[in-house]
Specification:
The protein is an alpha+beta fold. It contains 5 helices and 4 strands, in the order αββαααββα. Strands 2-1-4-3 form a 4-stranded antiparallel β-sheet. This is Heme-binding protein.
Length: about 130
């Protein structure tokens, strides 16, 4: 995914956040979990790290962050080591994998600052854009 692609994903997610009237931070990462693009909307504090970690979690496991959280909870795993690796991960809603038209994972997006449902909707809207390009 190029920077321009990541910016397109980010801007689409920002538009969704504005439509929902929710101030969030949105992060887009590449397949290595490295930050490509970030936006912190007005009046949002303390969630930059959360948005990045949600995106990294989705990318590292190839699953949306909340789905990974459900797997960990249902398996009654001791996930302390996993969640604290790589600078920390978050298994709550808001991290969504980005796939190309062929279904290949090419990155992930994380949103934080709204409710779990809002964060997931914002991130999912951004993630869907790339499959349409």
């Amino acid at each position: 995914m190029t920077y321009d692609d990541a910016s397109n994903v980010l801007n689409t997610a920002i538009a969704k956040a504005n439509q929902l009237n929710v101030a969030v931070t949105i992060a887009v990462v590449d397949t290595g979990g490295h930050l490509l693009s970030l936006a912190r909307l007005d009046s949002v504090y303390g969630v930059v790290d959360f948005a990045i970690k949600k995106a990294k979690t989705a990318m590292m496991f190839g699953l949306d962050s909340d789905i990974m959280g459900n797997i960990m909870n249902s398996a009654e795993m001791n996930s302390y080591g996993m969640l604290n690796s790589n600078g920390g991960l978050l298994t709550v809603a808001g991290g969504v994998v980005i796939k190309d038209k062929q279904g290949k994972i090419i990155g992930a997006i994380g949103s934080s600052g709204g409710t779990p449902e809002q964060d997931k909707e914002i991130a999912a809207t951004g993630a869907k854009v790339f499959s349409l390009i």
